[in-house]
Design brief:
This protein has about 425 residues and is an alpha+beta fold. It is built from ten helices and 24 strands. Helices cover about 25% and strands about 30% of the residues. The two termini are about 35 Å apart.
Length: about 425
């Protein structure tokens, strides 16, 4: 793992995560960490925002109380997710229907970082499709980030009444909801350091050992809650599993993420590319040729420290563009897990641009992710410098900065470039 990425990862406090709808990640102490991140300007990861975003959400409504800004992202349906922001862009409340909090059913699941493949029985998939059962992931990292304590899938029962519940995804709302529903079973990998605590970790009381990782550090278990309905636990026991070699981590990802083939955190040039901004205007690598130095700011629409610094980044751009300095925003969450543009997020980015008043380009990541430079990012914001020839120069900057700090960083890098001419 790149050392600087590791430091940013630690700064974000991303140690315990639960995945929802494959794309959402939550932390139990979201509220405290989000506040801390804003105070310190630290980079924040997806779970720090306390936001679970479904790639197939029907719509997203952004609103605010009092002096905040109320925005509707097109015609959101009654089942759409609701996000409430304060005037400074901090998410205050997020609710989703309990029936939507589940990974989608599919024939098989493969997790190279865990070294695990799973094939679900048809009846279990049917139960998931009917929202009688939800499938969610959970993981916990070791304190020193040397590995994970556990990563497992879990299946939980929903009653008809529970399906219609509104779950608050901020603070402890999600964990409180999890505690209120019945655990059926789990499947996952556990460090040998924690296997004595399987009952408390999994919420199950019967565990079938499936095997051990090649390095001997992890054991695999299929677990059930014997107190749950047998017709449900029987389906968990029918899950077919295959153990594989664990893929070595090469970026700060969730253990349930898929390795990206084009990750290149040490890229020295952004390469050639074609992409568009959030209005559909085409951009290529020539976006950098008009300036001696361009600050690339990779951010997401759900990251409040990212949004809060956008006005200062625009001031920086207006102040220094005549000195040969450009700014480009890269809206990372406009591309979904399926590799396609998420139009709902694009609309939200357009709203944020209007709210913050930025005038520099806000781009959608290209297929090659800037020659792999922005692949696998999960802590935001992260910024780096590019010269007029597309070379990546200087050190990356993790987290948000004040206008004065940005001015100092840009002037320092610009002096280095000018000195080398």
């Amino acid at each position: 793992m790149n050392k600087k990425r590791l430091l940013a990862f630690l700064a974000a406090g991303m140690l315990t995560m639960t995945s929802v709808n494959l794309t959402g990640v939550l932390a139990a102490d979201t509220a405290e960490k989000s506040e801390s991140a804003e105070e310190t300007g630290a980079a924040v990861s997806a779970d720090e925002a306390g936001v679970a975003v479904s790639a197939d959400a029907a719509g997203v409504t952004v609103s605010a109380d009092g002096a905040g800004v109320a925005v509707s992202a097109d015609e959101a349906s009654d089942n759409s997710e609701t996000m409430v922001f304060s005037e400074d862009g901090t998410p205050l409340e997020k609710t989703v229907k309990a029936s939507s909090i589940s990974m989608k059913s599919q024939d098989s699941y493969e997790y190279p970082y865990l070294g695990l493949k799973a094939v679900l029985p048809d009846e279990l998939k049917k139960q998931m499709d009917n929202s009688d059962v939800v499938m969610i992931t959970a993981e916990k990292w070791k304190d020193d980030m040397s590995g994970f304590d556990y990563g497992f899938l879990h299946w939980d029962k929903l009653t008809e009444e529970q399906k219609d519940e509104d779950v608050n995804m901020l603070g402890t709302g999600f964990e409180d909801w999890l505690a209120s529903i019945e655990r059926i079973g789990t499947l996952g990998a556990y460090s040998t350091d924690v296997i004595d605590d399987l009952d408390s970790i999994t919420g199950c009381n019967e565990h079938k050992e499936l095997g051990t990782s090649a390095d001997g550090k992890y054991k695999y278990y299929l677990s059930i809650n014997k107190n749950a309905e047998s017709e449900l636990t029987d389906e968990i026991e029918k899950i077919e599993t295959t153990l594989t070699d664990m893929t070595e981590f090469n970026s700060n990802l969730s253990v349930f993420d898929q390795p990206a083939e084009n990750i290149n955190p040490d890229a020295t040039n952004v390469g050639t590319f074609t992409t568009t901004d959030i209005d559909g205007n085409e951009y290529t690598e020539k976006v950098f040729s008009d300036y001696d130095l361009t600050l690339v700011n990779a951010f997401t629409t759900w990251c409040s420290p990212c949004v809060n610094e956008m006005p200062d980044l625009d001031k920086l751009y207006q102040e220094m563009k005549e000195q040969g300095v450009g700014v480009v925003g890269m809206v990372m969450d406009t591309i979904g897990d399926d590799g396609k543009t998420d139009e709902d997020v694009v609309k939200k980015a357009q709203v944020l641009r209007e709210k913050t008043g930025v005038t520099y380009p806000l781009l959608i990541p290209d297929e090659g992710n800037f020659n792999g430079r922005i692949s696998g990012l999960s802590s935001f914001p992260e910024s780096f410098f590019v010269d007029k020839d597309g070379n990546i120069v200087g050190d990356p900057i993790m987290g948000s900065r004040s206008l004065e700090e940005w001015e100092a960083a840009v002037k320092d890098e610009l002096e280095k470039i000018n000195a080398g001419k």
